[in-house]
Amino acid sequence: MEFSGKWSTKVDNQCLSELKDQPKNIVELAMHKMIIQLSNIPDEIRADSERWLEEFHRNSLWEEVKKAYPDQWVIIEATEAYSEGDRRTIDQITVVDNCQNDNRAVLQYLQLHRQHREKELNVVHTSRPVLDIIELPPAIRA
Asked: For the chain, which residues make up each domain, given as ranges?
């Protein structure tokens, strides 16, 4: 297999044979990990792979939550997060509670928020394909 563009290299055939039966996302994960470990890779390509790996990690976390709490409301704490424009990017989450209906989830969120104002809590439904949090101005937050 060859990579092309601003640089190109051949990937070890043994490595590719080990990956051939893996799902596409696992192959992409392995490729990006290999890219950031190579010493002769331009910084912009290494940075693209690092961003891809960060996004893969975030999506994997949300997939784990969705699998553990299918079709439910969950109250999550963002233990590591940062803002990008009006979006909140969450790198690390903890499930605080789960609820079957939205009314109970919101009431539980409000109670937890009053008790722990220092924590970044969110209520989300696990049917969402991605964890996409829009940051609200302070005046609108509960």
From this structure: 13-62, 69-134
